[in-house]
Design brief:
CATH class: Alpha Beta
Number of helices: 3
Oligomer: single chain
Helix content: under 10%
Shape: globular
CATH topology: Double-stranded beta-helix
Distance between the termini: 65 Å
Largest sheet: 10 strands, antiparallel
Strand content: over 45%
CATH superfamily: Mitochondrial biogenesis AIM24
Radius of gyration: 19 Å
CATH architecture: 4-Layer Sandwich
Number of domains: 1
Structural class: mainly beta
């Protein structure tokens, strides 16, 4: 896994708060991008939509729409803006596998296989932030995003991460999901479920999680006055 290697010219802007990705796609090559993430593109780039995960998973929100962008006649530039207000990162996989939370996929080269709700590592990932994982494997570029900033952690033996803060992790790490201090803690302490990782690999952590933010803003919501 190499952060510096790439088959594309690309750069990030506005990190870490509102990450924006610009990629130059060589003529005749194709870039896979999360549906609705395209912000700008050259006029000679063509788009096709692919549906990953099947109709049953679509009904439960566990499918992934991916748009494929291909420039014709010359290289083309595309600007990509994920929906979450946060950071973005890039890795180059070399016959490797990385697992993303369900909303983290941004873009990849065509040689990266993107598989939704891979059953082998589910083990109770039901924290509310993501009901399924995305398995990305193969050789090529992969971009992903977070809500908040991204921190990369090297795991040597054991490590505990709140499931709401997990962005991605590498194959070879095993984990179990549990409440951090029993079910009373789960419902009354504000702490949720944690993944207890074991093995050697990397994990990417987001510095914020959406449910905590919505709880914070909830008291400030407009409330309609009930007149007498």
């Amino acid at each position: 896994m190499d952060k510096d290697k790439s088959d594309f010219q690309f750069h990030f802007d506005h990190q870490p708060d509102f990450g924006f990705l610009t990629v130059t796609i060589p003529s005749g090559q194709t870039l896979k991008v999360e549906a609705s993430a395209m912000a700008t593109m050259d006029t000679h780039i063509n788009m096709k939509t692919k549906f990953r995960g099947g109709f049953k998973r679509f009904l439960t929100g566990e499918s992934l729409f991916i748009n494929e962008f291909t420039p014709e006649g010359a290289a083309g530039e595309i600007g990509i803006a994920p929906s979450a207000a946060g950071d973005m990162d890039h890795v180059y996989l070399e016959n490797e596998t990385i697992f993303l939370q369900g909303s983290a996929f941004v873009a990849s080269s065509m040689d990266i296989n993107v598989e939704t709700k891979w059953q082998g590592l589910m083990k109770g990932f039901f924290s509310g932030e993501s009901m399924f994982l995305i398995k990305c494997s193969g050789t090529g570029d992969l971009w992903f995003n977070s809500y908040g900033g991204i921190m990369e952690v090297d795991i040597e033996d054991e490590y505990v991460i709140d499931t709401g803060h997990i962005v991605a992790f590498t194959e070879g790490l095993d984990y179990n999901v549990s409440s951090v201090g029993g079910y009373k803690s789960l419902f009354f302490s504000g702490e949720g479920l944690v993944a207890r990782f074991r093995g050697q690999g990397k994990a990417w952590i987001q510095t914020r999680k959406a449910p905590a933010f919505t709880s914070w803003v909830y008291p400030f919501r407009p409330v309609e006055s009930k007149g007498g």
